[in-house]
Task: inverse folding
């Protein structure tokens, strides 16, 4: 087999640069391991679009057209993913998307190894509502992730007979959060669901910490801030001790005590030392590049259709545990872990579920009868 | 949108020649929860699915056994052509929305959600219209009943009307129906309320 190229498309600067740097590092680490095992058969093409949509398009086009990449691992936001997909379709390539996202997509030219709502938000609410109550306050980044996560939250809360006490949106880089914090103080929700991203998220966590210091009703044990995408890699930006006690969902935490993760961390320690905490973004990018490279090598070709068929067969061993990719939806089944932030910016895992099959269109959640007779076949 | 649209268990028929493009469409429909039938023969009016997708580039009149606003199910047109005749054809057969060819996966779910919504809205409007037309048609009956009550009770038109309306409300019947029984003499005149 001739050497094949894998495009790595992550932004290391811009409002979600922390996630991008972590993802790129994970991808690089995987490439290093592939090289060590297989020589230069798999070669990376790194492009950094700096968080700018036109640069994502240009980067993806250059990978597909000029560098002969048929696989791109990358994009963090749904906005960037949606922009890149038509290009990947046009060149009949495969995009590897590994971030938690809001679901409602299942493209044949995309492999989804990040969780969708039946793998993060729904189990999160099943955990939270009996323990904290059914009156949340919803925050979101002002784009589709925030909007759709909060829309679904509203639906879940309405079904449970609860009530949404407030719903506010902030652009990634908006850090004026005082009015929102004042509103939360007055309305006194059961918990705050934060789908904020980047500086807005960090500013809110800082301001909410001060509120909890003033009024114990807003300490994390009474009114936690919960998220589906806050990871180890951003807690440094938030500040040590600021978010202690708050909750976040991921399919991977640095503190996972599994043989796969312990072995993974031992390998990482040789490269980065023992101090570095590994986030879901690092681990997921690592897994995606590893799976991609190994599937290409095992197939003897980077033809996306052949690689896809190989992937959807047997379960794949990853740092998330053995994961299975559903050939119908192209989504990975993923475990659910709920972590509580520790004083030194790690996570204690306080609840887990084994791998949950992805249901991107939430078809299985409510078996509503069809308008007419339903055929059971 | 409060409720996540869910097509689990719905039956969809794709009226299209079986080819590679319909396979991909079918895959996407299945993962949305549909039971999919692909055929290139006219629909059986007695065995209608819950939703219909039709190739509007090549569709012919009898493929969909109805015309215009009376489509009994949500219809989505699959269209590559820009020919005005084809656009007219899909509208004449009650299509609620279009999925452009070549079909991209991301176009399907939004179009289906929209088609169901538009179809429901059309049905609601159609039923309301039928209801109102019926009421207008029966208006002379109401007028005649009011005249009869006026004469019998020696009262003015407004009072007679309110007697009739109260009677209908108490019995939870449309005024037109109560009026018809009064005119027909099927029941005694209502007492003044």
Result:
């Amino acid at each position: 087999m001739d050497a094949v190229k894998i495009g790595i498309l992550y932004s290391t600067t811009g409002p979600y640069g922390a996630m991008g740097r972590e993802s790129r590092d994970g991808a690089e680490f995987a490439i290093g391991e592939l090289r060590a095992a297989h020589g230069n058969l798999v070669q990376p093409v790194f492009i950094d679009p700096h968080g700018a949509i036109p640069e994502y398009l240009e980067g993806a086009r250059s990978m597909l057209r000029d560098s002969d990449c048929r696989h791109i691992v990358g994009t963090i936001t749904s906005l960037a993913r949606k922009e890149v997909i038509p290009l990947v379709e046009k060149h009949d390539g495969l995009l590897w998307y590994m971030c938690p996202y809001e679901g409602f997509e299942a493209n044949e030219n995309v492999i989804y190894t990040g969780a969708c709502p039946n793998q993060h938000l729904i189990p999160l609410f099943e955990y939270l509502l009996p323990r904290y109550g059914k009156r949340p306050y919803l925050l979101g980044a002002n784009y589709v992730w925030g909007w759709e996560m909060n829309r679904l939250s509203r639906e879940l809360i309405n079904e449970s007979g609860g009530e949404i006490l407030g719903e506010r949106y902030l652009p990634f880089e908006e850090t004026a959060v005082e009015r929102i914090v004042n509103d939360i103080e007055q309305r006194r929700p059961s918990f705050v669901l934060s789908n904020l991203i980047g500086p807005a998220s960090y500013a809110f966590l800082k301001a909410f910490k001060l509120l909890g210091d003033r009024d114990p009703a807003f300490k994390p044990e009474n009114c936690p801030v919960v998220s589906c995408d806050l990871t180890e890699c951003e807690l440094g930006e938030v500040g040590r001790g600021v978010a202690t006690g708050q909750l976040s969902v991921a399919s991977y935490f640095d503190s996972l005590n599994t043989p796969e993760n312990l072995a993974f961390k031992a390998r990482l320690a040789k490269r980065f030392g023992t101090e570095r905490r590994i986030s879901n973004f690092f681990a997921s990018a690592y897994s995606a590049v590893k799976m991609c490279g190994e599937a290409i090598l095992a197939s003897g070709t980077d033809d996306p259709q052949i690689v896809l068929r190989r992937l959807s067969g047997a379960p794949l061993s990853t740092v998330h545990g053995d994961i299975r990719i559903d050939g119908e939806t192209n989504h990975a089944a993923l475990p659910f872990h709920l972590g509580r932030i520790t004083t030194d910016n790690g996570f204690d895992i306080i609840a887990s579920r084994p791998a949950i099959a992805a249901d991107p269109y939430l078809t299985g959640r409510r078996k509503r009868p069809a308008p007419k007779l339903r055929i059971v076949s | 949108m409060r409720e996540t649209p869910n097509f689990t268990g719905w039956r969809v028929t794709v009226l299209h020649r079986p080819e590679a493009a319909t396979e991909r469409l079918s895959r996407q429909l299945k993962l949305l929860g549909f039971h999919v039938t692909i055929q290139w023969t006219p629909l059986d009016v007695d065995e209608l699915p819950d939703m219909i997708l039709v190739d509007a580039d090549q569709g012919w009149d009898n493929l969909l056994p109805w015309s215009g606003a009376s489509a009994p199910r949500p219809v989505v047109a699959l269209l590559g052509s820009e020919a005005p005749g084809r656009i007219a054809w899909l509208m004449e057969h009650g299509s609620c929305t279009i999925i452009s060819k070549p079909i991209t996966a991301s176009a399907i779910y939004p179009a289906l959600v929209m088609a169901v919504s538009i179809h429901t809205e059309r049905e609601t409007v159609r039923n309301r219209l039928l209801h109102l037309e019926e009421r207008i048609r029966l208006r002379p009956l109401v007028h005649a009943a009011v005249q009869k009550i006026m004469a019998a009770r020696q009262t003015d038109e407004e009072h007679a009307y309110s007697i009739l309306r109260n009677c209908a409300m108490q019995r939870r019947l449309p005024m037109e129906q109560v009026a018809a029984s009064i005119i027909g003499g099927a029941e005694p005149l209502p007492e003044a309320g």
About this structure: The CA atoms of residues 3 and 113 of chain B lie 11 Å apart. The first strand of chain B starts at residue 11 and ends at 15. Helices of chain B lie at 20-31, 84-92, 105-137, 139-153, 157-171, 175-183.
